[in-house]
Amino acid sequence: MNHWPFITAAYLLVLLGTGGLAAFSYAAMRRAEAAAAALRGGRE
User: Fold this and answer.
1) The dihedral of CA 16, 21, 26, 30: what is its sign?
2) Which DSSP string do the residues of 1-44 spell out, in sequence order?
3) Stated pTM of the model
4) What is the CA radius of gyration of the chain?
5) Contact indicator for 37, 44 with CB cutoff of 8 Å
6) Which residues lie below 8 Å from residue 15, measured CB to CB, with a gap of 6+?
7) Contact 23, 17 (CB under 8 A)
8) pLDDT (tens digit, 0 to 9) for every residue of the chain, 44 residues total?
9) How far apart are CA 1 and CA 44, in angstroms?
């Protein structure tokens, strides 16, 4: 049995998972920065 399809699928899952986590973290960071700016009253 050829093992390359399984290796390719594993790498694809890892890359998609990492990309998804990075996108989710970036969105959360932007929301937190906006909330902090609102608490400061937009100064800075």
Assistant:
1) positive
2) ---HHHHHHHHHHHHHHHHHHHHHHHHHHHHHHHHHHHHHTS--
3) 0.73
4) 19
5) yes
6) none
7) no
8) 899 999 999 999 999 999 999 999 999 999 999 999 999 986 66
9) 61
